[in-house]
Each structure stands twice: as C-alpha cells, then as structure tokens.
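Just curious: can you write whichever protein you like plus the matching structure tokens?

***
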Amino acid sequence: MTFALAMVTARVAFVGTDRLYSGVDSMKSFAATKMARLETADGHGFITYAGAGARSGSKPFEVSEWIEGVLRGANRTLDQTLREIAAAAEEQGFDKHAPGHTFGYVGFIDGKARVEINGSMLVLLIRRPSDGDGVEDR
C-alpha cells in the first residue's frame, strides 16, 4: 500500500511519499520514486501515484520515467496532461496487475492552489473553499 501526503497553501505545495512496493513479492526490495515534478502550460506542481508501478513477474517499473515518456515534453494544460496520463495508463493496462491506480496532483494553476485526484475508479476535483464549490466529482 502506498502512502502519499500532499498539501497546498496559497504559496507552497508539498508532497511526501513512501518508496516501497507492496503486494508483489518479487518487488519487496525495490524502492520506487512515487512522485515527480510536473510543469504544464498553465501551472506547476507535483504528481504522485499509487498502484501504477506494480507488475507481477516483471522487472521494477519507474512510473516517473513512464510519465516523462508519455508526455514527451509537450506543452499541455494541466487538464490535458492528466487526461493524457489517464488514457495511457488505461491503454497500457495498469489495472491488469493491481486493482486500481491513482494519480494525484498538488500545485498551482494560473497562480491558484489546486489539488486533483485521478484514478481508474475515480476522478475527483477539489477546489479551495474560497472558490466556492468545495468538492466536485466528475
């Protein structure tokens, strides 16, 4: 099970994660990087992930390197970037090896704090209370 802690204030975004795989005996000694810096056309922040790296019977999989390959340096908005990552994860069958995967984003879009959680079973957009809505499920 992955542990990821993310928080954002008006000026600071912070992410901390564990580094170990669980549930796949062949990967118990492999330490993975479960977060990456993400810069988009409209913002910057961090992306974290859980359930995306475990591959039963396969060599260890660095999701941060996979994300870099999926995006290939293209300059997209955050929404376009997260959709591209989600589509590639589905296309490549991330859920075949682990029941569900989740990508989280914490950072700033157009200067405003933003948190997003996107997974194979859930897409959740969380807005700061000053934006009005609170939580929106889409």
Summary: The longest helix spans residues 78-91.
